[in-house]
Structures are given as structure tokens and as C-alpha cells.
UniProtKB/TrEMBL annotation:
Protein name as it appears in the record: Uncharacterized protein
Amino acid sequence: MEVRIEVAGQEATLPVSVAEMEDQCLLGLNYLLSMECELNFCSMKLEVRGKSVPVTAARHTRSGGEVRAL
């Protein structure tokens, strides 16, 4: 499956796979590298080709699942 996303005004179409995972990890590393991103955990900002966007931490859903978003 492919998904079209836009981050900091930059559009991309990416392949997406859904998997049940036990470990926490940063998904989309290939995308972050290809878009020349800089992720700053101290300021909770993601810079995409010079444009900065806020980073959101994980939150738990009512069903007990976890949602992570940048």
C-alpha cells in the first residue's frame, strides 16, 4: 500500500506496511533521510528542508494501543 503525505509543505508518496510491534522505534527513517530531515528531541522540532514543524510524543488510545506522530 502507498500513502501520500505532506510534512512541512513537502509532499511524498511512500510505501506503508502495518505490523504488530512490541518494541518502540522510529518508523520512516528512509523518508526522514531522503527529505534531509533533522529531528531535535530537545526542542521537539522536526526540520524538513529548512522548514520546522513540531514533534508530538506518543499517546495511548482507549483500546490500550499507542499512537505516535510527528
